Amino acid sequence: MGVQTDLREKLISDYAKLSPQMQKAARYILDHPSDVALRSMRALARAADVPPSTITRLMSAIGVETWQEFRDHYQNRLLDQPASYAQRARETQRTENDANRDEHLLESICRTEIDNISAAFSPELVSRLIEACEAIEDARQVFIVGRGAAYPAACQFAYAYRLFCDNGVLVDGHSGTFGDELRGIGRRDLLIAVGAKPYIRDTVRAVEFARSQHCLVIALTDSDVSPIAMDALCKLVVRDTSQSFFQSFTAALSVMQALVALLVARGGPKALQRIAAAEEQLAVFDTYLED
Amino acid sequence: MGVQTDLREKLISDYAKLSPQMQKAARYILDHPSDVALRSMRALARAADVPPSTITRLMSAIGVETWQEFRDHYQNRLLDQPASYAQRARETQRTENDANRDEHLLESICRTEIDNISAAFSPELVSRLIEACEAIEDARQVFIVGRGAAYPAACQFAYAYRLFCDNGVLVDGHSGTFGDELRGIGRRDLLIAVGAKPYIRDTVRAVEFARSQHCLVIALTDSDVSPIAMDALCKLVVRDTSQSFFQSFTAALSVMQALVALLVARGGPKALQRIAAAEEQLAVFDTYLED
DNA sequence: AGAATGTCGAAACAACTGTTTCAAAATTAT
DNA sequence: ATAATTTTGAAACAGTTGTTTCGACATTCT
User: Fold this and answer.
1) What is the pLDDT of residue B98?
2) Does residue A188 lie in a domain region?
3) Residues B89, B74: one domain?
């Protein structure tokens, strides 16, 4: 065969020279290559939020005669690339060098992560999540605490939550001593505490302090008998099983994100409106890069 | 519905009971499964030398409502995805209108998250992860930057990395102006940048600055043409598909954790030794709660 | 300022999609 | 052989496909 240029590479290299709309289309194609092979052009255009004509224009822009040609290329790629499981199995049978030891590790990490996530969305957890939502909606102030490896999950929730509610406080100790942010916590408030074994003193102390002030607690932790979950109104127990030395906080993060999604969904248009306002404010601060 | 019947098996078991023309069609399908996924029904009929109506009749004969359903099944098999989570997610969204709307939402979030994770551990990403590892091992200093919603993922990596390597620097702007930590960055160093659309200016600037100082970049982002991935040594592209308004950083976090696990595994006993030392040091500070 | 250029999306197009209908043909039972 | 039944493919269908066209809009240049 002649010069079989890889259209994907072409798309990347020409990307900068394309018009904004074409970039949008090109980007979607790069991010969803299998859609090109399996779906129709119009369906792809719809998914990429672009009129069909943009796709056609993109074709001629990258020197492809017709969509059919482009699609064929992607279909062949899909067929050439053997089913990944089969491929991996073959590689496994080769001599055990370091490279496929790494691959094995990653594969088993993947499985574990998926297990952790599906466990986190079990029916029981789902109903507890809804309870958690109701508690958050009723709270005056929502404090979020998570130290060490649990900090990212806490942080994630606090960031998203603050985009549509102004009563969220992340207890991270950045403003002086840790726990400073908890001053004034009381009966009508709520503390969301995140942490798994080994439990960090600060987190446990924060929970105990909150309880002493009659503040309700939602615990996102690794066990029903975790010190963080003591006397909690709502215990969100997730797995942190991991192949490596460290615990995995993937499930915890996922649950945090789900909690946010639930709150927004229940908040209705009012919540969306607040998010829009928050984004506008960020735009004023020139936070984002415009296209 | 819930029963994941393999249509191929069904075709074989029912083969004897089919009419001659249908057998002809069934036989072609069994011999050319990828044609089902990639070509149109009429094209398939033409190739099997059978009128289109025979295919339709075959569908109802094996208890399949529509050709679309049949084709979807084969497409998913081609993609090596046991089930089309994304599509089912769409279906659940349609039927939701009741009080169990929350449960439906959570269920579809779960599926999307699992999809994102499995995509993040595809063979291609796995080999890129190993490349990333090598780059990290060779680097003098490792800077990690991630703003906004990407901060937790960056934070996670930095925290874990610091437990067994002392050349990691989290660029978070806590110590004065953002980017201050980048001073002195150079040829032998490495920057790990995390971010998805909408891209935050600070992150892009950090990447550009690093590049200008001839520092290598590893990008953990949502597209090959993301501004963060420009000229990156290694592009770790993960999905951030989400049911809610916000992007999901679950896959990004998971990849970060996997990177740490890989580094530790490759580091051998020396790495474990350093972790032990770090833990001991934390114990001295009375960080953890003992049992 | 106005002209030239590039970009964009709605509409129109013929071709093709998956499906249904119906009468002819082939098979089976009587 | 004749009636009853099944099997078959052409034709018609409404909807969708990929592509082209054209006027509106925005941007750049003079």
Assistant:
1) 39
2) yes
3) no
Q: Which nucleotides of C are covered by protein (CB under 7 A)?
A: 6-12, 16-21
Residue at A111 is within a domain: no
Are residues B71 and B133 located together in one domain of the fold? Answer: no
Read off the pLDDT of residues B187-232 as tens digits, 9 standing for 90 and up: 999 999 999 988 999 999 999 999 999 999 999 999 888 999 988 9
**From the CA of A210, how many Å to the nearest CA of chain B?**
18
User: Sign of the CA dihedral B90, B95, B98, B100?
Assistant: negative
The phi, psi pair for A162, rounded to 5°, reads -65, -15
A contact residues 109-148, partner B, Cβ 8 Å cutoff? 109-110, 113-114, 117-118, 120-121, 126, 129-130, 133, 148
Residues B54 and B192 in one domain: no
Distance in Å from D16's C1' to B107's CA comes to 32
Closest to B105 (Cβ–Cβ): which among A152, A242, A265? A265
B139/B17 same-domain check: no
CATH number (domain holding residue B162):
3.40.50.10490
Alpha-carbon distances of B264 from A92, A244, B83, B211, B268, rounded to whole Å = 22, 8, 34, 27, 6
- The CATH number of the domain holding residue B31 is 1.10.10.10
Backbone angles phi, psi at B236, to 5 degrees: -100, 100
A276 touches chain B (CB under 8 A): no
* Partners of residue A144 on adjacent β-strands: A170, A192
**Chain B contact present for A7, CB below 8 A:** no
Residue A277 shares a structural domain with residue A140: yes
What average pLDDT does range B126-152 have in this prediction?
95
Please list every residue in chain A whose beta carbon sits closer than 8 Å to the beta carbon of residue B114. 114, 117-118
Q: Mean pLDDT over all residues of chain A?
A: 86
User: pLDDT tens, B243-290?
Assistant: 887 889 999 999 999 999 999 999 888 888 888 888 888 777 777 776
The minimum CA-CA distance between A57 and chain B, rounded to whole Å, is 19
pLDDT above 90 (res A93): no
- Average pLDDT over chain B, rounded to whole? 85
Q: Which of B110, B137, B240, B274 is the best mutation test for A, with the most CBs of A within 10 A?
A: B110
Residues A125 and A76 in one domain: no
Taking 60 as the threshold, does the pLDDT of residue A84 lie above it? no
Among A228, A225, A262, smallest CA distance to A121 is for A262
Per-residue pLDDT at A235 exceeds 80? yes
Quick one: tokens of A81?
């690339």
**Of A180 and B126, which is predicted with more confidence?**
B126
The answer to whether residues B230 and B259 belong to one domain is yes
Contact A195, A171 (CB under 8 A): no
Q: Alpha helices of B123-249 — where are they, by DSSP H? A: 123-138, 151-162, 201-212
Let me know whether B197 and B274 are in one domain.
Answer: yes
**pLDDT, position A212:** 94
Please list, in sequence order, all residues whose beta carbon lies within 8 angstroms of the beta carbon of residue A39, skipping any fewer than 6 positions away: A47
Domain range holding A251?
120-284
Token pair of B150, please? 């990407």
pLDDT tens track for A145-184: 999 999 999 999 999 999 999 999 999 887 777 778 888 8
Number of structural domains (chain B) is: 3
